[in-house]
Amino acid sequence: MKALTLLAAVLITLFTSCEDVIDLDMPQGKKTLVVEGWLTNKSEPNFIKLYFTNTITAQSSLDMVGNAKIILSDNVGNTELLQEVNTGKYQIKTLKSIEGRTYTLKIESAAGNYEAKTEVKRLSMPIDSLTFKFEKKSALYEKEGFYPRSHGQELEGKGDFIQVRLYKNGVYLNRDADFNLFSDEFVDGNYIANNLLSVKEPLVKDDLLKAETWSVTEDALLFWLDIQIQLQNGQLFATPLANTRTNIKKTSSNATDVIGYFGASLIHSVESRVK
């Protein structure tokens, strides 16, 4: 029997600006709620999305969950009631991620009540510049082209984790080989130069590459590693729901099963054009 997974529901849309419908062959059966969202320090608003998994097909759109009460708060007394701007899409208007703070997301919905907590870690390895090196096809490089390298200072003190998100000519690169996840375990306090960034497709001249460095918790890093591993293995529908990493907890006894992730990050971005 096929099992629902977090990846099946949120692989493409999770934490991106994409509003496209995903075409997935989902099994019929028990509904599972997806909670999707990430708090950042970027100027544009952040959103929380609620929807069910079992109606995502080639012929239907997401089964969004509207009329929920969602409250976001931090550990210093700030609280915000999120506004539903479209069915199932709730806007965070005022709160932004601040280093060292813990954020709690509470949801009351027809599907049940839920809670998630996350901490904002320092941004310890921000990329200060990008360079590109042309590589010929070889055992190390499947295709000929320009490959990006990052440069930046890692702060002293172990326990830092980052995700680097890449945008080529304004398009978010989110395939399995585009994942860039890093720990400071072996580079603590060092300046990191010529760090090869992974891309599914090499760049060509005049391509514009933007690199966003996101601070993440260790749990969030492992969440993205789970996604990457299952993508690489082609196992989008093979991992049981119980084995899928999530930080969303049910707080009412009759709540629908839930998957998804709520995180918070500090973000720094740089961009450079291939010449």
Keywords:
275 residues; mainly beta; 2 domains; five-stranded antiparallel sheet; 19 strands; 8% helix
Could you please describe the fold and organization of this structure?
With 275 residues, the protein is mainly beta. The protein folds into 2 domains: 6-121 and 235-266, no CATH class; 129-215, no CATH class. It contains 2 helices and 19 strands. The strands form 4 sheets. Strands 1, 2, 3, 6, 7 and 18 form a 6-stranded mixed sheet that branches. Strands 5-4-8-9-17 form a 5-stranded antiparallel sheet, with no helix packed on it. Strands 12, 13, 14, 16 and 19 form a 5-stranded antiparallel sheet that branches. Strand 6 and strand 7 form a beta hairpin. The protein is globular, with a radius of gyration of 19 Å.
